[in-house]
Fold these 2 entries.
Entry 1:
Amino acid sequence: MSSSPSQPFVMLHLGLGSFHRAHQALYLHRLRQTGDTRWTIAGGNIRPDMADTLAALQAQGGEYTLETVSPAGVRQYERISSISRVVPYDASLAGLIEIGADPRTRIVSFTVTEAGYYLDAKHRLDIAFDDLAADIDATKRGLPGKTIYGALTAILRARRQADAGAITLLNCDNLRHNGDRTRAGLTQFIELVGDTALLQWVQQHASFPNSMVDRITPRPAADLAARVLTATGRADAAPVMAESFIQWVIEDRFAAGRPSWETVGVQMVDSVDPYEEAKIRILNATHSCIAWAGTLAGHQFIHEGTRDAAIRHIAFDYVSDDVIPVLQPSPIDLAAYRDVVLERFANADIRDTNQRVAMDAFSKIPGFIVPTIRDRLARGESIASVAMLPALFLAFLQRWHEGRIPYTYEDQAMDPASAHAICDAADPVDALCRDTILFGDLAGDSRVSDAVRHATQRVNSLMHTLNQENFR
């Protein structure tokens, strides 16, 4: 990349999946449509996945069609053109490193899923994960890795050597305090690698704003390309689909400038905390609840579970009884937000699958659900409603253990042997509630196990009362 002043500033994004292209890339596209073309996106993947999609995007000059659908079923189509360079995957990450080391690149953003950060509740890296240990070893030898930390370290090393200036590292994943956690994880990674000079450079030249992202973005349906062709007349090999709702809240802490996102609807704030807590506990946790329960009920899609009165009741009570009280006071109308979330989940045209939403529970339970348990216990209050969520996951896990989940369950943070051992235990509820990955410092707390045990009885009763053949 040339660093000619006539060229736009660059936001390098790692992870060109559907969510990035339906969210961050859309916001920059809309900014560019206003005539503000000072920024563009370059991006690629740090793992050898999505090869066909990346090839299609490259062939289309980075352009693609976004289909959105409202709860009323209204579909709209927009051609997105904010990605100016697509970098094909290369194990050396040479293309991404080159862009990251260019002075015109001022932001490196990323979406690698919640489990891709290998952090416990205290923001400590868990080097028991093979990928992370391998990355530490590779980075010590000057090689790029396959985790976000290995990739960022390689990029920042090159940037420091090029004297390319300050950089903002912008986490766009559903992770509480995602900027703070990225800083903590990356700092520990660089310390483990032993690169003191790079660590000092990062501390002086990098910023890590927290952000909150929200848009339901299912995996593209098989007939999406055909719908796009019919609606637009354009053959598109890399379309994406999403709900009409979209939100992005970012702490305004950028080390080297940023796009004027606030002109196209992004909320630039001093603290993302209240927005983040509402979204993670009300939307993300409820999403998982419905996915686990819906799978047990024999449903394939999120909207089916949301429209099932018994499942919706569990989700509604969880938010109303246990979440809203601990988040008050809030700048958000939490009851209205709960209702909007359930309306969004009931959108039949999104066809978001339980398989996609159910994944990574061993990251989502500690991140999305346990904080509410902890807050309720600290206040001396009941956890009966929130306990239904780990109880549903236990029933889901037992079904997985028996080989009776109708899809492949993916969970980067789960040790399959440990998960099977929970299900094989004489007391699976006790085994689940003693798992430190799931419950952290609450593992083994009798208040938790008692509540989950009672909730498990309710789940088992519900299995017999619902009218789905597989829910028994």
Note: The longest strand covers residues 9-14.
Entry 2:
Amino acid sequence: MAEPVTVGSVLDAIEERYPVLRGTIRDHGTLKRRPFIRFFACKEDFSLEPADTKLPHEVVSGTEPFMIIGAIAGG
């Protein structure tokens, strides 16, 4: 049986495959989400959920995306 797919495991995989992103999505030391970065899946906001939160089946199966969005602010 495969390990559960969680917010943290997806972020780990992204940073493993694209090392240049380390520290841009999450802090290097604490691994906490950077300000103005949001996580969405199945029309739900996963930004404030713990890293061990399991992602919905639709994301795991590939029918829905896991989105990492950088907020845009200005005035």
Note: The mean pLDDT is 93.
